[in-house]
Amino acid sequence: MTEMLSVRRLKPVLLALSLLIIAYNLMPDIAPLDIHQEKAIAQGFHVVSEDDGHSDLSAKKQHAFIQRLRNNLESQPKINNMSAINITPIVDGLSKQILPTDEDLPQKAEGHSNTERKGNQTSRQTRLILLGYMRTGSSSTGAMIRRHRSVFYWYEPLHSLEYYFTTRGRLDNIPMKNRTAREEFTNSDMALGNISAILKCDIDRLYRNILLDGFLSFSKVTSQQIHCFKAADSAGSWNACTHAMSATCHRDYSVVAVKTIRFHMARALALVQSDPDVKIVHLVRDPRAVLLSRRKLGFCNWTDLANEASYLCSRMSRDLKLALAARDTLKGRYLLKRYEDTASSPVEAMDLLYSFVGLVSSAEDQAFARNLSKSSKQIKPCPTCKGAVYKAKEISQVWRKSIAHKDAQTISGLCQDVMELLGYRKDFASKKALKNLAVPAVQKPHRSVVQFMDIF
């Protein structure tokens, strides 16, 4: 009896130790920062070159882009309280900084053009940014694009950098709760510089943290390289790894794709403006579904739902307004995708995504897309997307059965502009109407964003 009591007392201790071990294993592999990187922290994440030199022609193009944004702000659609989200300071902020050019990061001894391809292929690489928010289907969309043999795919490459710079290496400061630091990082020159380098296959420009992060294992093409970097024991061997990865990226792939929830739309637009080969897929979802999904994972403080909803929808509204303000620049280079449309018509969504970057889906690709909406297994690699991937068609609306009517109304009241713009039903008259899935929650989006969508 005494032994049984002892075992029972030990169970909570053993459980706590198991959780600590799991948490430790999930921590990103943080590499020591070099002197330049430490200096970047002190200077507020700026990692541009010392002289900040740019050609007059580049400066003229950049200022012209900023002026077009300002002009377009005057013709923004007036949707309820949308005008309350003011992006003028963001546009003004862009005009005060130097937009990205090749001089923003150290140059390589031997550069690569964007037309280097194996064999006789000379087509330019397409550089794709999958830009979403946590629980908007970015992982499942990434799973669609990464399976094509012509795509060099990166899964959340800013993960370890964000973790370090929002916690300064402290384990007691969880990044998801440190919103000010996270926002600062997503809009930093450091995030911009590394995304730009990734899209150009300039691996030797990347911070070491990125190349040692376990998240590289979530993409087949990058997972093949991580062992090389972890085994590198000298500058020479490290450089050999970066050169091999860069050469493979340039030579063997027609599309370089980055999936990220850690990047600011203003920075993505700066890349579009400075690089004609960059395209953006902007992933959105009903805010009520997003917040409920986050809650189930422990990433949403439901006791402060109003603040959580305001934060999410202000970000979505800001990003949509920035895209609309840059609509003349974004023609043919920006695709707005609702999670619900992809879930209900996955094959059509895949075909649209592939066509957007110049790819053609195979019968196997289409079968994979169909399985996204009915598979009972987790689609790997994705550490948190089991609930977001399997039975996606049902899950896109099943949140309505789980959320309280008053909570749904709270979110709708704070997200009216975003929901009207994207075509989400704002009001359900009663709890019964909310739970009745025969009453559609997804409707036709506002005319101002239809030009960027393809509704199935």
From TrEMBL:
<dbReference type="GO" id="GO:0006044">
    <property type="term" value="P:N-acetylglucosamine metabolic process"/>
</dbReference>
<protein>
    <submittedName>
        <fullName>Uncharacterized protein</fullName>
    </submittedName>
</protein>
<dbReference type="InterPro" id="IPR027417">
    <property type="entry name" value="P-loop_NTPase"/>
</dbReference>
<dbReference type="InterPro" id="IPR051135">
    <property type="entry name" value="Gal/GlcNAc/GalNAc_ST"/>
</dbReference>
<dbReference type="Pfam" id="PF13469">
    <property type="entry name" value="Sulfotransfer_3"/>
</dbReference>
<dbReference type="GO" id="GO:0006790">
    <property type="term" value="P:sulfur compound metabolic process"/>
</dbReference>
<dbReference type="GO" id="GO:0001517">
    <property type="term" value="F:N-acetylglucosamine 6-O-sulfotransferase activity"/>
</dbReference>
